[in-house]
Amino acid sequence: MTFTNWYNRTLNKIWGFVEDRTSMKKWALRPQPEFTFKPSYWTGAFVVNAFLMQVVTGALLLLYYQPSTAPTLTACGQPLATYSVAPAAWCSTYYIIHSVPLGSLLLSSHLYGAYAMIFLMFVHFFRGYYLGVYKAPREFSWMVGTLLMILTLGMGFTGYLLPYTQLSYNATNVGIVLALRLPTVGPILGPLILADGTSQGLLSRMFDAHVLLIPLGLAALLYAHIALFESHGIAPPATSDPVQRRRFNEKEDKSSVPFMPHIFWYITKWGLLYVGLILGIAALWPWSLPTYVGNVAAAGVVTEPDWYFLWLFKFVDFQGVTPVLAIGVTTVLIVYVLFLPFLDRSKRTHPRDRPLFIWLGTSLLEFFVLMTVWGGETPGVQILPMAVAETVGPLFVVTGIVVALFYWRYRRSYLRRLAARGMPFAGAYPLPSTGTPAPVAASEVSSRE
Question: How many CB atoms sit inside 10 A of residue 386's CB?
Fold first, then answer.
């Protein structure tokens, strides 16, 4: 008997005893197929791990942070002979970095953890988009996930102001102007965000939203997302078969790997690796605190948001693009993503069978990356319409050509495989004579993942 087999059998016996005495099997998450033990199937769990780390580091920061714009007579990083008056929010952030044991590591890991969580969220989103996991019966799970993505971006936006630097203050004001341009919602958000119109009112609202309101919304939606996941299970591999089942049956569930302790330890392993990476990055590249709001030395600070909003700020730099138009386009994109399950009605989930939506998703991804890089290189620089057409136009055209070529190539190869198996088809797709899913060749299985 190998050590791995002995270890697994021993672990199963120990956990079987724990389950028998505690009835934990009744509330543990559902088992999952053994083939899903790949990182690509657990991108959502990685986002949850990142969120939990943000909760822990954020709670520790709350022990020292002061959400106040009141001036504080303190050295605040200046030589002792030249005292300056700086806002308490900025000074408490400075104190965390320079006076709290491991404070710089704590603050930097919270900041980089936010970046990593948003990046992992985008990875999770685009994986689901390309593999068609939003199709029946998982439409509402996709919609809840979209709302989670919006709230996560809201967490980043509200947290950006809390150090109360001149850079974050300028960027937040621009973001608020754009938010107030939202149709119908904008006038409602105005009093909620701006409070009494003072800088203290704005900081207090951002602080409350960041540490209380949005986390409560995230927790509620996360519970709904996990509950829907429990109902439908993990999505089977993408397929071109229109009658392929979109969930696993009870027999398959019983033969799957249980959540406790196998899946739990699998996710924990990746979670610990994530924590180690974030702490390592924070230790090697600690965050530098920019100057505070109102400092005369900050007069030349260029307004620039965090990377995940750079694309929108650069979009406003296009000549002729007003804040109303920018926020209108953003609203259309949100509505498109939210109701995507009802727009893409095809029963086939493989990317090769959804050329239109693959082209749209890939073009949006490329546009997002291009605008993010462009905004980081030339923030606040106006772009003429001709430069926009010469840069963005070829992006959509070339992507369309590439998707069309791949669709044509895979359509031909798929038809050849159907013919080799003697399966009937009409046009480009099979028409099984019974309700039982047709057998799939090994080459077809290998192309699903």
Answer: 9
CA–CA dist 250, 141 (Å, integer)? 21
> How far apart (Å, rounded) are the C-alpha atoms in residues 32 and 349?
20
Burial class for 67, CB neighbours closer than 10 Å (0-12, 13-18, 19+): buried
H-state helical runs in 307-384: 310-316, 323-338, 340-343, 355-377
The helix (run of H) or strand (run of E) holding residue 84 is strand 84-87
How far is the C-alpha of 411 from the C-alpha of 348, rounded, in Å? 13
Alpha helices (H) along 75-184: 88-98, 103-131, 139-160, 166-179
Q: How far is CA 432 from CA 180, 245, 422, in A?
A: 53, 14, 11
Global pTM value: 0.85
**Cβ-contact 248, 33 below 8 angstroms:** yes
Q: What is the pLDDT of residues 118-153, one digit of tens each?
A: 999 999 999 999 999 998 889 999 999 999 999 999
In the chain the first and final C-alpha atoms are separated, in Å, by 33
Bridge partners (DSSP) of residue 74 are: 84
Task: Quick: pLDDT tens for 17-48.
Answer: 877 777 666 667 777 887 788 899 999 999 99
Q: Is the pLDDT of residue 238 over 50?
A: yes
Look at the domain 137-153+165-237+296-421 and name its fold: Cytochrome Bc1 Complex; Chain C (1.20.810)
Name the β-bridge partners of 32. Answer: 257
Residue 296 amino acid letter:
V
The one-letter amino acid at 97: I
Name the residue ranges covered by the structural domains of the chain.
Answer: 137-153+165-237+296-421
Beta bridge partners of 211: none
